[in-house]
Structure prediction request, 253 residues.
Amino acid sequence: MIELERVAKHFGDVRAVDGITLTVRPGEFFCVLGPNAAGKTTTIKMIAGLIRPDHGHVRVGGFDLVTHPIKARACLAYVPDFPFLYEKLTPWEFLRFTGQLFGMDDEAIRTGAEDLVPRFHLAEWLHKPIDGLSHGTRQRVAIASALLHDPKVFVIDEPMVGLDPHHARVVKDILRERVDRGMTVFLSTHQTSVAEEMADRVGIIHRGRLVAEGTPSELHAQAGTNGALESAFLAITDGERTATPETPPGGRA
Prediction:
């Protein structure tokens, strides 16, 4: 459902993404982990069609994001770590606006909202301006709006930012339910516990490269660790840091 083929993206001398090849299957919950500035968000933005790769191909639902961007984007929903919402709208107006962007009629929007609004505990805030809402409530509005049109692919960056434990649990449960119904999830997080709990497979990105992927048990086998996934993540990224010296601008090690 998501295919990255030798994908690379540079910003000047910085190799943000350096030749990633990855396939995420339909109905799979895939989590990507990585240190700060590893290339996770750049990878997500290329999957969402917000930036173009310098090299390689990104496909969603079989459609290339460069040659067939409209068809590819119609398959997916994307929620960044700090989503943009039209602050003068109410959550209901934003839900309706988002649904209309994806060609939903009013009846379908109402039906979807009747399911999502109570699940995300948004009824109290539904008709209040977004500019008066907390970050966590805005995050819930963004996620609910993205799920409204029942996307085939859901791409989300750091979904638990600003959420209290109760609403983090709500998001986890809803995403798992949607995956069980066939939706593909590509989730980026710094929280190894989220990846360990939710993911069918986990990828680790370090210095722009996909350095490991597999189930948590497979990552432990690769790293020679056991216990929490954090131990495998630290072993793999520390090993990459030791094995691959920092290369300064100009190409000299």
Summary: The chain has two domains: 2-75+152-243, 84-150. The first helix runs from residue 40 to 47. The mean pLDDT is 91. The two ends are 38 Å apart (CA to CA).
